[in-house]
């Protein structure tokens, strides 16, 4: 390249980099503001006992509800929350919202549980578990809460994580391994962490459609959970066929679009009511 062309290219690169930086910064600022303004709220997806048709719990999933009514999915901003420490205030807000949103359900079904997603860092740091201990001391229904730890991101210090999980368990919080089989943990998490519930990822539930009579990895996970005396929740159940095939394999807790998408709190409570006799 001639000198002027090289200069032009260098200039353009610097400019693009600056633009990129600015848009990153502004997403962080916008998210910070959104948390403060309570625009990040929980939707709830039912977890069914497919054997009885009863709703036994829910998963709280964050949504960004813009003032113009637009609903933004976490795929567009969860990474940014995780990268910045903004995931911490968001998680606490979500946690505290759960018993308010689901007050009527918690009151009439003491066995109903709602789960909340954590990132591994929140399990490695003490803040989250200390916060839950404080809430518990003032009557927060920790025995109706579960936390989901994803395998999608690495947990570095299993020993410290375990100490914090034990403190949560002492309050009645259940521990779930999310996205099981898709990420970093593999069998080591199952061996090292005191997990109560294995959430089998949609990836494996999908195999019930692709090759219904040949699902060795799914079957192995189900067997492993049984051996380890863990409950199983199957994620991403979209078709009746999958639900039936899971029941035939002894897995009765199902979550997925076949039953319902994640719903705004009020709609979820109405859905729950409609399933009561
Ligand atoms: P996840 O925890 O594995 O949640 C399950 C995701 O699968 C949800 O996506 C849910 O809407 C979707 N899903 C459920 N059933 C079906 C189905 O039958 N078919 C299909 N195609 N999808 C189904 P969502 O709500 O977009 O959340 C995506 C991910 O974002 C979550 O995956 C979780 O890792 C993360 N996330 C969501 N809310 C929070 C949060 O409050 N905190 C943290 N740390 N992460 C969150
Ligand atoms: Mg989850
Ligand atoms: Mg999941
Ligand atoms: Mg998943």
Automatic annotation (TrEMBL):
<dbReference type="GO" id="GO:0071111">
    <property type="term" value="F:cyclic-guanylate-specific phosphodiesterase activity"/>
</dbReference>
<protein>
    <submittedName>
        <fullName>EAL domain protein</fullName>
    </submittedName>
</protein>
<keyword id="KW-1133">Transmembrane helix</keyword>
<feature type="domain" description="EAL">
    <location>
        <begin position="24"/>
        <end position="276"/>
    </location>
</feature>
<feature type="transmembrane region" description="Helical">
    <location>
        <begin position="1"/>
        <end position="20"/>
    </location>
</feature>
<keyword id="KW-0812">Transmembrane</keyword>
<keyword id="KW-0472">Membrane</keyword>
């Amino acid at each position: 390249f001639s000198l002027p062309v090289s200069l032009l290219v260098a200039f353009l690169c610097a400019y693009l980099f600056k633009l990129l930086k600015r848009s990153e910064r502004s997403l962080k600022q916008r998210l910070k503001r959104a948390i403060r303004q309570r625009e990040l709220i929980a939707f709830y997806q039912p977890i069914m006992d497919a054997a009885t048709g009863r709703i036994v719990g829910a998963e709280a999933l964050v949504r960004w509800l813009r003032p113009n009514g637009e609903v933004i999915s976490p795929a567009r901003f969860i990474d940014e929350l995780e990268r910045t420490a903004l995931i911490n205030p968001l998680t606490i807000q979500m946690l505290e919202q759960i018993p308010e949103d689901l007050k009527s359900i918690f009151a009439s079904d003491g066995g109903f549980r709602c789960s909340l997603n954590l990132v591994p860092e929140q399990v490695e740091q003490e803040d989250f578990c200390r916060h839950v201990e404080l809430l518990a001391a003032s009557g927060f229904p920790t025995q109706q809460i579960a936390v989901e730890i994803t395998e999608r991101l690495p947990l570095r210090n299993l020993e410290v994580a375990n100490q914090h999980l034990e403190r949560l368990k002492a309050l009645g919080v259940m521990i779930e391994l999310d996205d099981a089989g898709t990420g970093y943990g593999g069998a080591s998490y199952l061996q090292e962490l005191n997990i109560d519930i294995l959430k089998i990822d949609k990836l494996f539930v999908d195999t019930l459609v692709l090759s219904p009579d040949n699902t060795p990895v799914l079957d192995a996970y189900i067997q492993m959970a049984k051996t380890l005396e863990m409950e199983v929740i199957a994620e991403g159940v979209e078709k009746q066929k999958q639900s039936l095939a899971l029941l035939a394999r002894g897995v009765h807790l199902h979550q997925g679009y076949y039953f319902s998408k994640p719903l705004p709190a009020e709609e979820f409570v109405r859905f729950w009511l409609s399933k009561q006799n």
